[in-house]
């Protein structure tokens, strides 16, 4: 009786592999590379001078600055919420744990436009806290605070969702050992926990920032579309395109595309460092631990 050939189930004919590879590369080119190339071609259609003028417009500079500002303000909230929720879920057992996990995933399930409308009903002039905010001259909607709040709501799951499975897989033995050796809670956190989760934390931050800079629906509802004040880059692109200013719209869109490419580069670097560190740790382990 002949022995079955190892790996035969995965040994497809060469033409099948080439066909699958061609389909995958064709899909990537048609739906990712080609639209990205079209953005830069249209942005530079009228020449470099028109492209530079479009980006040097005061409204465009305001939109770029506001987009980066919102991403910067959202970052600390994402870090605090992501680490705290992941720590609670991965290290402790408590009532309502499954409910907390469900609530973390809520921004993924709810449309961003609905999120904007909900915040408008809460903080708007006719909303729940609207009269009190107006009496104390506090502006939330149609101003920067409201845009930050809705963006933070939309992006809050990314850091937590990266850290929860990582911290669950690592367990809590190292933290318990550090505490038993006399470390304080802060020493344990910064010397044991943070080094163990640093790559997952950075990966989640990159994804959250990418979503924050590209958010449209929720921000569109609460921004008020005030030119030069509450228009982020995605909103600025929409306004220019509706006004048939193709060069200005695609010039602003090219900035978003460049930010997306930088995000992908940062993501690739983090993934490479994670794989490299994992290989180094695997080599350093004794043979019995590797098995």
UniProtKB/TrEMBL annotation:
Question: Could you list the residue ranges that cross the membrane?
Answer: 62-87, 99-122, 142-160, 201-226, 246-270
Topology of the protein relative to the lipid bilayer: Multi-pass membrane protein
- Which NCBIfam families did the record assign? 3a0106s02, permease_CysW
User: In terms of one coarse class, where is the protein primarily found?
Assistant: membrane
Gene Ontology terms, MF aspect: ABC-type sulfate transporter activity
What is the protein name for this chain? Sulfate transport system permease protein CysW
Its function, per the record, reads: Part of the ABC transporter complex CysAWTP (TC 3.A.1.6.1) involved in sulfate/thiosulfate import. Probably responsible for the translocation of the substrate across the membrane.
List the InterPro entries hit by this protein, alphabetically.
CysW_permease, MetI-like, MetI-like_sf, Sulph_transpt2
* A Gene Ontology term for the protein's cellular component: plasma membrane
The protein's UniProt keywords, in alphabetical order, are: Cell inner membrane, Cell membrane, Membrane, Sulfate transport, Transmembrane, Transmembrane helix, Transport
Q: Which PROSITE patterns does the UniProt entry name for this protein?
A: ABC_TM1
Quote the subunit structure annotation.
The complex is composed of two ATP-binding proteins (CysA), two transmembrane proteins (CysT and CysW) and a solute-binding protein (CysP).
Q: Where in the cell is it found?
A: Cell inner membrane
Please state every residue range assigned to the domain named ABC transmembrane type-1: 64-271
